[in-house]
Design a protein that fits this description.
Elements (H helix, E strand, L loop, with lengths): L2 H17 L16 H12 L1 H17 L14 H18 L2 H17 L15 E3 L2 E3 L9 H15 L2 H17 L2 E3 L5 E3 L10 H18 L2 H16 L19 E2 H18 L2 H17 L10 E3 L6 E4 H14 L6 H15 L1 E2 L3 E2 L2 E3 L4 E2 L4 H20 L1
Antiparallel strand pairs: 1-2, 3-4, 5-6, 7-10, 8-9, 10-11
Length: about 400
């Protein structure tokens, strides 16, 4: 057994032991912003940045310097996007160890996710269990999101692929119908459309279109309905059309407040393009992915192989290092291993860095480090504990191949 495999196994097993003590409940990155004061202050800030700054500063101070103080204001919650990642983690561990206990955990999470689905739509769907003030208005906890739901879609399909039980495929089909019928399509031309983020907006967010493009194209592969392929290609074309000359993507188009280029959203776009292209197998998409990865590697990873949170941002960021960036970088390299040179070696370097520097109490992962070097050690399962857990189990499986 080589050293990286041994270290991955030790880290994963210790994290699993910690996770078993949580009941999948956790505090969250958005806790302060989901309070009444948080929503109100952010609403003022979005209306008038200068007027709103004094009101949002207290939250930034608490979140940056005393993150554990959130326990005074909110209670821990379950998060569907985290449960979907954990379901896929346990399937990874079942494949690796062939132990029934991991498969049983995955099946339990399937049932839990069904219970958390938001009613009133064309199919199964999920969002966040809190109200979220965006620059497009207040999005409530009963609002499903195309950035959360595809993870559950993918998890249910992985369950089906292992078991061949029809109920898992039927659940995935239900999710696809939600994405087709309830997420808005904004037509740009006959070949290009933008996917909305939710059923109530018509935004031009690149990662939302990438997620929905992947979901639709995978749905076509699984269910054979041409409607999924036609629309899925339009969403993928939207993302490809918005790649900048240097290979990057802005978070969103036509909204000045969303004009930034960051690390993990870049990873989201690249990994969904790649998963879509596993079915489409188009050279033009692969070229876009390679160009995008080159931008990511050269501009969002520093010369010490540490992820940089932002390449372009109009406001000041207090984040120096984020484990979410590490997690998505590892996941991306595991996906691109066979197609994009140096992607997998970067994943290994990122994982080694995490396992040597950013494990708290020998159990879970550091959340963030701010520009003053202060660590946020509160373990948010939604952001980034479940993603890192998933990333390391993906890397473990890829080491086996």
């Amino acid at each position: 057994m080589n050293n990286i495999v041994k270290k991955l196994e030790e880290t994963i097993n210790k994290f699993t032991d910690w996770l078993n003590t949580t009941n999948y409940l956790c505090y969250d990155q958005y806790d302060f912003w989901s309070t009444s004061y948080g929503k109100w202050s952010k609403k003022i800030y979005y209306k008038n940045n200068k007027l709103g700054i004094p009101f949002v500063i207290p939250i930034f101070v608490l979140d940056t310097f005393i993150p554990s103080s959130r326990k005074l204001f909110v209670k821990p919650k379950r998060f569907p996007i985290a449960d979907a990642h954990l379901l896929m983690v346990f399937l990874n561990l079942y494949k690796y160890y062939n132990k029934q206990e991991y498969f049983d955990k995955a099946k339990e999470l399937y049932q839990d996710l069904l219970k958390q689905s938001i009613p009133g739509y064309s199919g199964l769907c999920w969002g966040y269990p809190f109200d979220w003030q965006t620059n497009r208005g207040l999005w409530t906890k009963d609002l499903p999101l195309i950035t959360s739901t595809p993870y559950v879609f993918e998890a249910f399909l992985k369950l089906y692929d292992i078991t061949k039980e029809q109920k898992y495929l039927d659940s995935a089909h239900s999710i696809a119908e939600f994405a087709y019928n309830d997420i808005n399509e904004t037509k740009i031309n006959d070949e290009i459309s933008a996917s909305s983020y939710s059923p109530i907006d018509h935004s031009f967010v690149n990662n939302a279109s990438a997620y929905n493009g992947f979901l639709h194209i995978e749905a076509y592969k699984r269910f054979g309905d041409e409607k999924f392929l036609i629309r899925g290609k339009k969403f993928i074309n939207f993302v490809m059309n918005n790649q900048r000359v240097d290979g990057s993507w802005l978070y969103a188009i036509n909204n000045p407040q969303d004009e930034f280029i960051d690390n993990f959203h870049t990873c989201f776009v690249l990994k969904n393009l790649f998963k879509a292209n596993k079915n489409l197998n188009e050279e033009r998409i692969l070229k876009v992915i390679i160009k995008g990865f080159e931008f990511y590697k050269n501009n969002l990873i520093n010369n010490k192989n540490v992820p940089k949170p932002y390449f372009y941002l109009k406001r000041i960021s207090l984040i120096k290092i984020s484990m979410y960036d590490y997690a998505e970088g590892i996941n991306l390299g595991c996906l691109l291993k066979d197609e994009v040179p140096k992607s997998f070696s970067l994943s290994v370097k990122l994982a080694k860095d995490v396992m040597s520097k950013y494990i708290e109490q020998n159990q879970y992962f550091t959340t963030q480090i701010n520009i003053l070097g202060i660590k946020n050690k509160v373990p948010y399962i939604r952001w980034p504990q479940s993603q890192m857990f998933f990333a390391l189990t993906n890397l473990l499986l890829r080491q086996k191949k």
